[in-house]
Design a protein that fits this description.
Glyceraldehyde-3-phosphate dehydrogenase 1, RasGAP_dom, disordered N terminus, globular, single chain, 4-stranded antiparallel β-sheet, coiled coil, alpha+beta
């Protein structure tokens, strides 16, 4: 076998790099290309025994190049994801990949459900107040319809191909989406973000999609800084860009970090239901006089109601109440801060990289800005958009099982305020009482600034993204799971802003949009199917053979390729044959011969092939007689894979917990929607909107076709029987006053005489008559839920409002 070298001209290589960087959204300047190339060259300048080391030190004169280093990395990537091997590592990686796919899919479902719940919260509030017309009720009802996979129309094959080309362009050239995100309105951004964060770049743990998404963020942030007029307003206003940054933190890696770092700390705090740490003097004063009036029946003249804040703050009793609370609050805040500071290495790469961009862009835009000012902007993202929302509303971030009670909720809000004041320059103008907590800020200022700067210390990903793109172009298929409305909505937004996005007629984006024509209208929710959209590029040639491509575009040799391929096959054989690598140092030729004499036909072929390759490499003077350097590199690769297995198992264990939490949150959101369905059904039936023309299933006299219709016969549902033990186990009974020894004799019968009305009867075994009956209205329960009332008092037991709503919905909604 003859060793050959293919050397592309420097101008072609530079041009190709320039075009590649430009497609990601970076300026195609020679300086940028040189910087990336220099970084890659530095990375490849390592000894033979260093991780990822090149071919230096081998017998012969084959040189280590940037390209051979990159090609070696590809082989290393392939070894880590080797689908032909069935060992513990391969099985652990398969489990991890499946988990990541499930989390990515479930995160998108939760994002959609949360948006629906937010919308319906406001609409149901109007329904409760009887301020919604029937037409609006129908609109809300449509929001609750599930997609039916059997109905609806698919785009034809030609349209699908055009959409596949368009979305490949959008995915691989993030600057288009970056520009679009700046052009859309706040009312349009949520739907676009759903498509971008959870569909276009929906594989949240796949490096290529994550890195492409981050390049989009760089473009968006660059434009935000360029157009900024005031330093103080940067990244703080509620804009599409700030909404986008917040949504990014809700992806799987961000959720996993929050659960790992904050969940235990928050749960230990909310266990203390009665711990009141209010430090606002006005609120403390009001609580104090209310308690005094409750105890004595009256208030003394020197403690009037409605005093101003300064009078409340000057009261000695109020000061005495607040003083120990301040110490305890600062102690708790310090414990939260310590947990966050210790979590630096656990922070998701993407969030750290965005912090790095904020620091870099700030220094470029404001070269005279102090380190404290720069850190306040980084903290504005990391704390204001990421950490603090999870502390203030832990139930929305799946960090706790239920809604925290009143006092812990207020404590968490105060902790978040303290952390935000620490990350930003506090003014205390609106909340002067927070000044009393300023020692916490002063004592931790240098610690937080160091942490925020350390967050920014992460490497860039441009080289690995280039390799990811090579790998993507060599894949047989790249598919996107996308709903029809996501497809059509993105098409409509692109068409609306096409002249800004693609001003020139020959621009690829404009060519795609012109071929597609006008965007179809949104389909009804029940027809909004998910389709599999194959992605391809008509302007990029798929790479059929990575070997040939690297030989054409780089200066690595066939001997380099053979050396790395031999090493790769040897690692495969060692992983596939138990015990073959127990004896050290490794005997590579013996390993090849052992594989060639097994009963497995695949291993036999590989053993024979690698034995021939070792002999050929020796003949080419690439390796010495004992394969010394290759043995060292194979040993190092095996050590790396062994460490990798431990890391994979640890990550999988962590993600199992995250997946369960996300699933539980999904169930909670669905129960919310089911409750809304039940209530809406009741309202529409009572207003005549829920039946077919000419019929009424409502209550009382309703109007049908302009005429009064008589009261229809009601169908009584139930009774349905539930034991005390069953409801207590399911969490419906939160507290019980029934003695332990009598609970086994207690049961509940629940009946629905008319839609939206429930009668709960408490019975004791052996007695015909109910001990207690309670009439519940669905709208009353929903109102309690909206007012964050946790418990429903039934004298003998206290029901959890959310749980009883879910039970009633599950029992009666489908009947």
């Amino acid at each position: 076998m003859t060793s050959t070298t293919t050397s592309p001209s420097p101008s072609n290589t530079t041009a190709r790099k320039s075009a590649l960087l430009a497609s990601y959204g970076y300026p195609s300047q020679p300086g940028m290309v040189r910087a990336v190339a220099a970084a890659a060259a530095a990375a490849s300048d390592s000894g033979p025994n260093s991780p990822g080391g090149g071919l230096t030190g081998r017998k012969g004169s084959i040189s280590t190049t940037r390209s051979s280093h990159r090609y070696s990395q590809l082989y290393s990537m392939a070894a880590e994801q080797d689908v032909e091997v069935e060992d513990d590592l391969a099985r652990a990686q398969k489990r991890l990949r499946e988990l990541k796919t499930k989390i990515s899919s479930q995160s998108k479902k939760n994002f959609v459900l949360e948006r629906d719940v937010r919308y319906l919260d406001s609409r149901i509030a109007l329904l409760i107040q009887n301020r919604m017309a029937i037409a609006e009720q129908r609109e809300v009802a449509e929001h609750l319809e599930e997609a039916d996979s059997s109905d609806g129309l698919f785009p034809d094959d030609r349209k699908l191909q055009s959409y596949g080309n368009l979305f490949f362009l959008l995915q691989t050239e993030p600057r288009h989406i970056a520009t679009l995100c700046r052009l859309v309105s706040l009312t349009e951004i949520d739907t676009l973000l759903q498509t971008v964060m959870f569909t276009l770049y929906g594989n949240q743990y796949e490096s290529r999609e994550e890195h492409l998404l981050l390049t989009m963020f760089q473009s968006v942030l660059s434009a935000q800084f360029e157009t900024a007029t005031e330093f103080g307003s940067l990244l703080r206003a509620n804009t599409p860009v700030s909404r986008m940054m917040t949504t990014y933190t809700r992806r799987g890696p961000g959720q996993s970090y929050l659960k790992t770092v904050l969940s235990e700390r928050i749960n230990s705090l909310i266990e203390h239901n009665e711990l009141n740490l209010e430090v606002n003097p006005l609120k403390v004063y009001e609580q104090m006089i209310n308690q005094l009036e409750e105890n004595t029946g009256s208030l003394p003249p020197h403690l009037p109601r409605g005093v101003p804040p300064d009078v409340a703050a000057a009261n000695e009793d109020v000061q005495a109440i607040i003083a120990p609370r301040l110490s305890m609050l600062m102690e708790i805040a310090n414990s939260f801060l310590a947990t966050i500071l210790d979590s630096l290495d656990q922070a998701p790469y993407g969030i750290r990289w965005i912090c790095k961009q904020i620091r870099s862009l700030t220094k470029r835009k404001y070269p005279d800005a102090t380190d404290f000012s720069i850190c306040s902007l980084i903290g504005g993202f990391f704390f204001l958009r990421f950490i603090n929302p999870a502390i203030v509303t832990p139930q929305a971030y799946m960090l706790v099982d239920g809604l925290p009670s009143k006092h812990p909720r207020r404590t968490l809000t105060l902790i978040a305020k303290m952390l935000q004041n620490l990350a930003n320059k506090p003014t205390y103008a609106k909340e002067s009482y927070m000044m009393t907590l300023n020692p916490f800020v002063e004592n931790n200022k240098s610690r937080i600034n160091k942490f925020l700067n350390d967050l920014c210390e992460v490497g860039d990903f441009y080289e690995s993204l280039e390799m990811d793109q090579y790998m993507a172009l060599s894949k047989k298929e790249i598919n996107l799971n996308i709903t029809l409305n996501e497809l059509f909505n993105t098409h409509q937004l692109l068409s609306q802003h096409r002249d800004v996005l693609a001003p020139q007629d020959k621009h690829h984006l404009k060519v795609c949009l012109n071929e597609l024509g006008s965007a179809p209208p949104q389909v009804p929710r029940k027809e909004n199917k998910t389709i599999v959209l194959p992605l391809f590029s008509r302007w990029e040639t798929p790479i059929q053979d990575l070997h040939s491509t690297f030989l054409q575009e780089t200066n690595i040799t066939q001997a380099d390729i053979m050396y790395m391929e031999t090493k790769s096959i040897l690692v495969q054989l060692i992983r596939s044959i138990p015990g073959i690598a127990d004896k050290r140092p490794l005997d590579l030729m013996k390993i090849a011969e052992t594989a060639a004499t097994t009963k497995d036909a695949i291993l036999v072929r590989k053993g024979i092939k690698v034995k021939e390759m070792l002999i050929e490499l020796e003949a080419l003077n690439v390796v010495d007689d004992h394969f010394t350097f290759m043995t060292e590199e194979v040993t190092e690769e095996l050590r790396h894979l062994g460490n990798l297995r431990e890391k994979v198992n640890e990550e999988a264990a962590s993600l199992e917990s995250v997946y369960k939490t996300i699933g539980d949150h999904n169930n909670y959101l669905r129960s919310q929607l089911d409750s809304y369905k039940a209530y809406l059904q009741n309202v529409r039936m009572q207003s005549g909107g829920g039946s077919s023309p000419g019929q009424s299933s409502g209550v009382g006299v309703v109007t049908v076709g302009g005429k009064e219709a008589k009261k229809g016969k009601q169908q009584v549902l139930g009774p349905f029987k539930f034991t005390h033990h069953q409801l207590e186990k399911d969490g419906v009974i939160a507290e019980s006053n029934v003695p332990e020894n009598r609970r086994s004799n207690i049961f509940f019968n629940i009946t629905s005489p008319i839609p939206g009305t429930f009668i709960i009867a408490l019975h004791y075994k052996g007695r015909d008559k109910a001990i207690l009956e309670m009439d519940l209205k669905l709208d009353d329960l929903l109102e309690k839920q909206q007012d964050q009332v946790q418990l429903l008092d039934l004298e003998y037991v206290h029901f959890n409002v959310n749980k009883i709503l879910a039970l009633l919905t599950k029992t009666f909604i489908k009947r």
